[in-house]
Amino acid sequence: MSSIPSIAQDKALHSIDINIPPQLHQEPVLATLISNYDLIVNFKAAVLDRKATGGGWFSLNLEGYPQEIDKALDYLRNLGIEIFAHGAVPIANRLDLP
Q1: Residue among 24, 36, 45, 96 at smallest CA distance from 64
Q2: Which of 36-40, 51-55, 65-69, 90-94 has the lowest mean pLDDT?
Q3: How large is the average pLDDT for residues 7-11?
Q4: How confident is the model over 13-25, as a mean pLDDT?
Q5: On the CB side of 22, how many CA atoms lie within 13 Å of its CA?
Q6: What's the CA angle centered on 85, arms 61 and 41, to 5 degrees?
Q7: Quick one: which of 60, 76, 81, 74 has its CA closest to 14?
Q8: Averaged pLDDT score across all residues of the chain
Q9: Helix/strand/coil (H, E, C) string of 55-70?
Q10: pLDDT tens digit string along 21-64?
Q11: What span, in angstroms and rounded, lies between the C-alpha atoms of 41 and 18?
């Protein structure tokens, strides 16, 4: 009996801006995105008050499987981090492959 191979879900690239409040500056928020959700996180820009008295703004690209990106965004929301999403694009659509 032959089995039907499962179709692998394509990875996606999701662009977001986040504001990490001062009370979370000592927490490994971004490291958790990488380790717990198997994401590649690319920092496009960041602004963090030198004295860490204000929020920390980060412009990020999250690359990974859509369900993991969704879980990671839920994690950020549950921490009280503001998220400004710019959208997701399947990885295959952004590569210039022959």
Answers
A1: 36
A2: 90-94
A3: 66
A4: 90
A5: 6
A6: 20
A7: 60
A8: 81
A9: CEEEEEEEEECHHHHH
A10: 888 888 999 999 999 999 999 999 988 776 656 778 999 999 99
A11: 13
In the structure encoding, which two tokens stand for residue 42, read together? 């690319």
pTM of the model: 0.76
What b/e sequence results for 57-83 when a residue is b if at least 16 CB atoms lie within 10 Å of its CB, and e otherwise? bbbbbbbbbeebbebbbeebeeeebee
> Tokens 């977001």 belong to which residue?
16
